[in-house]
Amino acid sequence: MARFGRWVISLLLSLYINHLRCFTITRTLTLLNTSPNRSLSHLSIKMGSSSTAQEEPQLVDTPAIVPSPLAQEPDNDVPAPGNQFAEFAAGCFWGVELAYQRIPGVTETEVGYTQGISHNPSYKDVCTNTTNHAEVVRVQYDPNECTYETLLDLFWSRHDPTTLNRQGKLVGAQYRSGIYFYTPEQEKLARESLENQQKKLEKKIVSEILPAKKFYKAEEYHQHYLSKGEKSGHAQTQPSIGRPLFYQLYVTLFEIWVGRRKGCKRMKNGYSIHTT
Ligand SMILES: *[C@@H]1O[C@H](CO)[C@@H](O)[C@H](O)[C@H]1NC(C)=O
Ligand SMILES: *[C@@H]1O[C@H](CO)[C@@H](O)[C@H](O)[C@H]1NC(C)=O
Fold first, then answer.
1. Dist. CA 216–CA 136, nearest whole Å
2. For residue 32, what pLDDT is reported?
3. Residue 260 is part of which domain span?
4. Which ligand neighbours the alpha carbon of 176 most closely?
5. Atom nearest to 37 CA in ligand 1
6. What is the predicted pLDDT for the residue at 9?
7. pLDDT lower than 50: segments of the chain
8. Which of 146, 225, 233, 247 is the most buried (most CB within 10 A)?
């Protein structure tokens, strides 16, 4: 019974974390990543103090964006033998990647940035909302095991294709909805599926369907982020049953706090592009 209660609490907490979306966890990670010397315990000391928390230097600096024609070149990477590429933008790439990883016949997934104006963008660049990159998942699939239509079905079911440059609370061009095709065949199927999907929806679909352009793989810590959750304690769909409850609580409260301080509040003030 105690075990069940713990499980339920873990589940509720996980759902809440999920609800807070990508930026909360990203923020936590960025805080931990950008300052190697700053430990979790150090941050926890600062938790109660609002004035110090506002002085995080990385919140305000905006990197200079240099446009480059290279970014507009086609994606010339080559998939593994017998495989094909497919590419989708459907909001925060973490969850989208996890969903595609679970499809039988999908042999490889990578998250990255594409369709923007600058060469080799970093996550920070993309989050300025000035590079026009979309967060995408580039999928490799074996066409004998899995059809492109299956991938399209997942794409439509995975997000809201009717909101321009946003998914829920995540706002900015990086969260736009798009299908980036590699072959004329993919383009045809994508356009047909959009038409079919439109019949099911009242609001107009705003997803773009464009040729795949140069793919910039995202920073290593973004790759397979949610499926690596066991390691970092943020697995999206599996509540961490075996983890001591106080630890889970601590992580959750910390994430909520970080989300509140750096995400939600600033987002209301229109600064979200610097903080996600
Ligand atoms: C981390 O600590 C080391 C040694 O104390 C120091 O040399 C380094 O500059 C510090 N790095 C940061 C980012 O503060
Ligand atoms: C992000 O940029 C797009 C154009 O690229 C713009 O339409 C949108 O309003 C911007 N969003 C925010 C939150 O600034």
1. 10
2. 47
3. 2-62+238-275
4. 2
5. 1
6. 80
7. 29, 31-60, 230-242, 262-276
8. 225
Check: CB of residue 32 under 8 Å from CB of residue 82: no
Query: Do 141 and 58 meet the contact criterion of CB atoms below 8 Å apart?
Result: no
Can you tell me the distance from the alpha carbon of 63 to that of 19, in angstroms, rounded to the nearest whole number? 29
229 assigned to some structural domain: no
What are the angstrom distances between the C-alpha of 68 and each of 23, 24, 76, 119, 131? 28, 31, 17, 6, 10
- Using one digit for the tens of pLDDT, what is the confidence trace for 131-188? 999 999 999 999 999 999 999 999 999 999 999 999 999 999 999 999 999 999 999 9
Per residue in 191-200, pLDDT tens?
999 999 999 9
231 falls within a domain:
no
Rounded to 5°, the CA angle 15-33-90 comes to: 45
Number of folded domains in the chain?
2
Ligand 2 contact, 132 CB (< 6 A): yes
Cβ distance 174 to 135 under 8 Å?
A: yes
Q: Is the CB of 37 under 6 A from ligand 1?
A: yes
Phi, psi of 220 (to 5 degrees): -55, -35
CB 115 within 8 A of CB 134: yes
